[in-house]
Design brief:
Order of helices and strands: HHHEEEEHHEEHEHEH
Radius of gyration: 19 Å
Strand content: 5-15%
Helix content: 40-55%
Largest sheet: 6 strands, mixed
Number of strands: 8
């Protein structure tokens, strides 16, 4: 199957799951097809799916990721001992685990084609990730608390695992509780990663998007928490700070002294 054939197959299968979309015409334009498929992935509730669907979906997503270009963290140069800074799409990073800035349901973003990292990770991991999270949450019996962390397979992403953490929502003035909860996000992810023998972990900028944590203060807390954890535990885990925005890149370069380590 070509990528176009896979894409159309997946769209038809997903449309067929819901009667309200019966008769919906599939656009001929590639870009519109891609947006429709992503939207259908995003709104799909966790439910069983056929092996044939997964076979086509997995081939499609892995090809898409491959064509975008995978970055292996081992090719990056450390800015400090065991600490790396990388600007790029976290769904394209090959390392042991990436961190997802999740919501308390832990089911991913249901808003079609939303630009948040939660949406991107769930989209390119495939429908298995939402189902895996749903099973985890069913066993837990309640929403995920702010500052905790959960581990799932990464499915179609280049990494092996996804660590899901719920960051604090800043509704106005930044509080000590917000700062403590954000620190807990990083600490919880590091501890869970260590428990599962994860050798490399990539952090996104937790809570700085939809949750409105100030970028500089968030970066300061991230770096401080990681360094404190590594000093206390003597962990040799490789930590990658993955940023997407120019503003965050410059903040982390300053905090990590990246200009001194070209």
């Amino acid at each position: 199957m070509t990528q176009t054939e896979r894409r159309i197959f997946l769209i038809k299968e997903l449309l067929g799951e819901q009667n309200r979309y019966a008769g919906l015409e599939i656009p001929s334009d590639k870009y519109e097809q891609e947006r429709l498929l992503r939207s259908l992935f995003n709104i799909r509730m966790p439910r069983p799916v056929s092996d044939s669907f997964l076979l086509v979906q997995d081939a499609y997503l892995r090809k898409e990721i491959e064509e975008k270009g995978i970055t292996d963290f081992s090719e990056l140069k450390a800015v400090q001992k065991d600490i790396f800074l990388w600007r790029g799409d976290i769904t394209l990073l090959k390392c042991d685990a990436v961190v997802n800035a999740a919501n308390s349901q832990l089911l991913g973003c249901f808003y079609p084609c939303h630009s948040c990292i939660d949406n991107a990770i769930h989209t390119y991991a495939g429908v298995q990730l939402r189902s895996s999270c749903a099973e985890l949450m069913k066993r837990q019996g309640h929403e995920e608390k702010t500052g905790g962390a959960k581990l799932t397979p990464a499915f179609n992403l280049p990494c092996k695992y996804v660590l899901h953490t719920v960051g604090p929502i800043v509704g106005g003035r930044l509080t000590e509780e917000n700062i403590s909860e954000l620190s807990s996000c990083y600490r919880s992810c590091l501890e869970l990663a260590e428990q599962n023998h994860i050798g490399s972990i990539a952090f996104c900028c937790i809570s700085t998007g939809e949750f409105h944590f100030p970028n500089r203060e968030a970066a300061q807390m991230a770096v401080k928490t990681v360094k404190k954890y590594k000093a206390e535990t003597r962990s040799e885990m490789k930590v990658i700070f993955d940023v997407f925005k120019d503003k965050d890149y410059e903040i982390y370069r300053e905090l990590l002294g990246a200009d001194k380590n070209p």
